Amino acid sequence: MDAIILQILNGLDKGSAYALIALGLTLIFGTLGVVNFAHGALFMIGAFCAVTLSRILNFSFETIDPGKTDFLGNPATVETAYLEHWFGPEVGGAIIDWSVPLAILFSIPVMLVVGFVMERGLIKHFYKREHADQILVTFGLAIVLQEIIKYFYGANPIPTPAPDAFRGSLDFGVLLGFDPNAIIYPYWRLVYFLFAAVIIGAVFAFLRFTTFGMVVRAGMADRETVGLLGINIDKRFTIMFGIAAAVAGMAGVMYAPINSPNYHMGMDFLVLSFVVVVVGGMGSLPGAVLAGFLLGILESFASMNEVKSILPGIDQIIIYLVAIIILLTRPRGLMGRKGVMEG
């Protein structure tokens, strides 16, 4: 039982990332009708927002410490962060330590601008083009963004630690009545799952309970009729593209301590996330979230040694295998709408 619970936790962790990326993909497809293969790159840019802010907060200068000497007996120089110099070691150190959560605030305007430029500068010209054209141009854009990140940040993963308060692990089993050390799980992965739940809930609440969201949902269902009512639905859809980019960016920021940011992480998640969207049903927001968590849990169980000893390599293909089975039995996905990607 403890192994099952641990795999469920691992699945929720993976599923959180899949669901957040798939949610943004579905928002863009549902509003603009664009198959955006550059969405994984937005996740990557978000992760590097965390890296960038961490580097900015760690800017330092050299000072001489008369209490220390080097191997020649000369006064040693030490690196002192500007924040610690300005605000003191405690406050400045705390700001540096919490650079990843603070990067959420940093990433939101960055991702909104990136999303706006991407949509207005390129993607708007492909609204009425075939989906194959959209895939090619956005995939090319993803490669360009990936190479830009590689040029400025290098090819190696960049460790971006979580705050000290969340670097340990929780004895989750004790909370459920198991023996101590039966289920040990990292704090930050639990934080990521809770963060994903909040963001997903906020997006659904925004679409359901705000006037802006209601108009967007109406436009997703019947864009032409909403336009005839005198509402500038294109402007609202552009804003939704920015919101989808911000969601992907925040997902990347919070994932940075789990998987050290690297230039190809967007591609790693993109293909899986598109499978999630197709399984959930193209254009279905609840379907994207449901499929994200479902496939994350299945992938986690398939990675168990007991399963791999019986079916070697199953952890590499389980998501695609499930996708084939679901699409053979439900061609529109779990919660897909009639007419989407048809005709």
TrEMBL record:
Keyword rRNA-binding: no
A Pfam family annotated for this UniProt entry: BPD_transp_2
GO MF term list: transmembrane transporter activity
Record flagged with keyword Glycosyltransferase: no
Topology with respect to the bilayer: Multi-pass membrane protein
Keywords: Amino-acid transport, Cell membrane, Membrane, Transmembrane, Transmembrane helix, Transport
Alphabetical GO biological process terms: amino acid transport
Subcellular location: Cell membrane
Transmembrane feature ranges: 16-35, 42-61, 102-123, 190-216, 237-258, 270-298, 310-328
Gene Ontology, cellular component aspect: plasma membrane
Family: Belongs to the binding-protein-dependent transport system permease family. LivHM subfamily.
Designated name of the protein: Branched-chain amino acid ABC-type transport system, permease component
Source organism per UniProt: Salinihabitans flavidus
